[in-house]
Write a structure and sequence with these properties.
Layout: H1 2-11, E1 16-21, E2 23-36, E3 43-56, H2 57-66, E4 70-78, H3 81-92, E5 100-103, E6 110-116, E7 119-126, H4 134-150, E8 155-159, H5 168-180, E9 185-188, E10 202-203, H6 207-214, H7 223-237, E11 241-245, E12 251-255, E13 258-262, H8 275-288, H9 293-307, H10 318-331
């Protein structure tokens, strides 16, 4: 199994992965809290460090890059200072902004996290979440077509944060084209477009999202009930695979009408931010090189746990992931 895992990861360097969705800047303000404000019962934080990182769908791209594959992002951002900063961050990370379009009527999304002594105190979101208008949608679709024509993509990820970049028309057109070209499609969904992803290869909600999306109250830990819900969803979407992340209970994945539940590893959790981005990134690469559904879920589950041990949104450490994946499969 060690050889199989190593061979799979070695093939990642040959992959081109298209990421369509909501990109953003993850801004961090680090500092220390020593007193409470006299103006209101809130802590006063003295800022010692600021940092801007690629976030949202761009964090998926960072994970794809960390795994050795080539990510290409496609999104519409604001024609503003933060949009320029976003492109500069891409350049710093040695990633192309060929797929990034700008619009004067959009705002570049920025999520600012305030952190003291590894404790997440506050998040401030500066964003516009309305869907693209018809002209923007047409422009983005034409750009996606152009990118697909220029690259031989091995997988397409829809990274949906409900910020408006992904619309039902874009989903339908891209999935139709991907099917024609035999490119697997993977989805990290949110509420707005939950039921719009017809015909995708792998659909990856978390537990809360599948409950809300199907309007069901599924008891956590009841895998028979979860499987029934996932099969309902799979039939509704005509999707090949449903993979549900379950936090401390690990990951569930459908497989030929049955299911696999992969338990979570015991870890020292520092921050769950960005774990879903890591899971979908690893799943896309594993699926693209032909690993089986249970293998895809197990390796993605390990990856999601590893990034939760780090503070902030950070990409996966590939060498650590390979080592833990080998250990996991050798134990089975």
């Amino acid at each position: 199994m060690q050889q199989r895992i190593q061979q799979a990861f070695s093939k990642f360097s040959q992959l081109n992965i298209l990421i369509i969705g909501d990109v953003m800047i993850d801004a961090y303000m680090w500092g220390k809290v020593n007193r409470i404000s006299p103006e209101a019962p809130v802590p006063i934080i003295s800022i010692t460090q600021r940092e801007n990182r690629l976030g949202g769908a761009a964090n998926v791209a960072l994970n794809i890059q960390a795994l050795g594959a080539n990510p290409v992002m496609c999104a519409l951002i604001g024609d503003d200072d933060k949009g320029q900063l976003f492109k500069e961050l891409l350049t710093e990370c040695q990633m192309t902004h060929e797929g990034i379009l700008t619009s004067g009527s959009r705002k570049t999304t920025v999520k600012t996290r305030v952190i003291s002594s590894n404790q997440h105190l506050l998040r401030i979101d500066d964003e516009v979440t309305k869907p693209l208008d018809a002209a923007q949608e047409k422009e983005l679709l034409e750009h996606i077509d152009s990118l697909i024509g220029n690259y031989k993509f091995d997988a397409i990820i829809f990274e949906d944060y409900d910020k408006g970049n992904i619309t039902p028309s874009i989903i339908e057109a891209v999935v139709k084209k991907a099917k024609r070209l035999a490119i697997p499609t993977l989805v990290d969904p949110k509420k707005r477009n939950f039921s719009a992803y017809h015909g995708v290869t792998l659909f990856k909600p978390n537990f809360k999202e599948i409950c809300e999306g199907l309007k069901l109250d599924i008891p956590k830990g009841n895998f028979a009930a979860l499987h029934q819900a996932a099969e309902t969803l799979r039939n509704q979407l005509q999707a090949e695979l449903i993979m549900v992340t379950l936090s401390e209970l690990g990951v569930y994945i459908t497989e030929n009408g049955s299911y696999q539940q992969i338990p979570a590893e015991i870890r020292d959790i520092a921050d769950v931010s960005g774990a879903g981005d890591t899971v979908i990134s690893v799943a896309a690469c594993c699926l693209a090189v032909g690993l089986q559904p249970a293998e895809v879920a197990a390796i993605s589950n390990i990856a999601g746990g590893l990034v939760c041990e780090k503070v902030g949104v950070v990409p996966i450490d590939t060498n650590q992931l390979i080592a833990e994946a080998i250990t996991y499969f050798e134990k089975r």
